[in-house]
Amino acid sequence: MRANKSFIFISIIMGVILQIIPMPPPMDLYRPDWLLLILLYWAMALPNRVNVGVAGIAGLILDILYGTALGVHSFALAVPVYLMSANYQRLRNYSMPQQAVMVLVLSALYHLIVYWLVYLITGIEFSWVFMWPCLASMILWPWLFWLLRKFRRNLRVT
Questions:
Q1: Which site from 44, 75, 80, 84 is most exposed, i.e. has the minimal number of CB atoms within 10 Å?
Q2: CB neighbours (10 Å) of residue 31?
Q3: Can you tell me which residues the record assigns to a coiled coil (predicted)?
């Protein structure tokens, strides 16, 4: 029974690994937000287990691994996860294309928050290239949702 509950932790660790794994430079522009997608799934499926606190800790780990100022990714992950967990009952009833559009919006919000916070610290200029991962996350959402739901049901994660 305990192994079933640790699947959430394992999936979040896998999201962190997929988020930082090296990719070829042309493909890196389109890297989906793996950690955000996994946190959004768990916030929608089990909002009592994965919430803003888990997103904040995962964001701190991401800040440490990326070498950014502490709290940038933590805050940027916490906002979309909060919005998902606050509206999980409504979003569960959406069709898959509607959920994918919501993931696009939440991913765009995540990237804009990261940009704004990094802009305040370093003054970097905005480029639309920052938004390509949002489209990749939207396209990947149905498959990741299906995969995580299949594991959650088979392992009886509650």
A1: 75
A2: 16
A3: none
